[in-house]
Amino acid sequence: xxxxxxxxxxRRSHEYGRNRGSRIWxxxxxxxxxxxxxxxGLSVPAVAETELxxxxxxxxxxxxxxxxxxxxxxxxxxxxxxxxxxxxKMLDRTSDAVGATSPYLHAQYMQFCSAKLTHDLAAADPSNxxxxxxxxxxxxxxxxxxTVILGYRKPPVGRSEASRAAIGAIEALLVDVVxxxxxxGF
Length: 186
Prior knowledge:
The chain has 186 residues and is α+β, with helices and mostly antiparallel strands.
């Protein structure tokens, strides 16, 4: 059995963040821009309160319990969570610097991959590299404590039939994880 090496883990995490995190940072930058625009009184397109994208689900309960269920749903399938990002803490920490208040009471995401599904994805087309890691998230809004929103980042659209099939298998996995947790299936 391979032993955990914290120095190796740190090195891999650093390389991982440097090489693969640009989509996450661009998403977070967009979220910060919306919050900042709202704080400056600029118009931001309105979305109906009850309208959530199809890759989002809700679950009532304690945030910490829901997040633990999300982690368990990943690990119990044999996957390793590569990284946990604390978006809510980052927004709280930087709110004074940008003059905004985070809408989140809590917010984090988890990244993981399936070796089998990612091999299938890469075999279909090497340019599918952006399809890994997979990302699931949970957040609780300050305005709606006790309701946790769960979801996943949608995988990219494939350029070929084989790519679309591989991406479909990844999305089915993500739907299964989120649906299990949203339904309290533990």
